[in-house]
């Protein structure tokens, strides 16, 4: 069962240029219980609500993984359940020792769930996950915001209502002078980046997500 937080604030770390720690509210969720799951593709006929890409450092590993059910698990070993098994994706890929050490910490990994209020990430592993998302960024700021989600906690990583309200919400990309932090070109506003166990940003030696040993790119179907 997920931690019951009610009105308590849980300290997580949003990595900013000023290296300021923030507190935000989490909402308690129970694993396996989907709150008002949202059917996808009702208007466009599109079946997949997102596609997952697994990366090790700056290289994508394995095939893209389209997601149709409202929930999907991402984990390291096949015996950990149904969903995207990273060990299977990487079975023909020789990873450096640092990547192998990080992958060994993923364990049960995370669950992604499309719900009425957005897309939620539930951290099922014993290590933190780190999230960067356009709906968690400050649209008026140029700083990169990376959220640290401890084991056993969850976070709304993509609010589809909010993305439509952002200045760049009518398109699928934003230009480098609109992007936060370290973006050096067009950024897909329907893309969420999640790093397993290792953070990135101003507080870390890893300045960009492509320096993280194991990370997931969640490519969401554009809002219409």
Keywords:
224 residues, mainly beta, Tumour Suppressor Smad4, seven-stranded antiparallel beta sheet, five-stranded mixed beta sheet, globular, SMAD_FHA_dom_sf, transcription regulator inhibitor activity, SMAD_dom_Dwarfin-type, SMAD-like_dom_sf, transcription
CATH class of the domain at 51-168 and 189-223: Mainly Beta
Strand order, sheet with most strands: 2-11-10-15-16-4-5
Distance between the termini: 34 Å
Mean pLDDT: 75
The counted number of beta strands is 16
The CATH architecture assignment of the domain at 51-168 and 189-223 turns out to be Sandwich
Largest sheet: 7 strands, antiparallel
Q: Output the radius of gyration.
A: 17 Å
Q: Which geometry do the CA atoms define?
A: globular
Describe this structure in words.
The strands form four sheets. A seven-stranded antiparallel β-sheet has the order 2-11-10-15-16-4-5. A five-stranded mixed β-sheet has the order 7-6-8-9-12. A two-stranded antiparallel ribbon has the order 1-3. The chain is globular. The termini are far apart. The longest helix has 7 residues, at 97-103. Helices cover 8% and strands 32% of the residues. The protein has a domain at 51-168 and 189-223: Tumour Suppressor Smad4 (Sandwich). It has three helices and 16 strands. It is mainly beta and 224 residues long. A hairpin with a 2-residue loop joins strand 4 and strand 5.
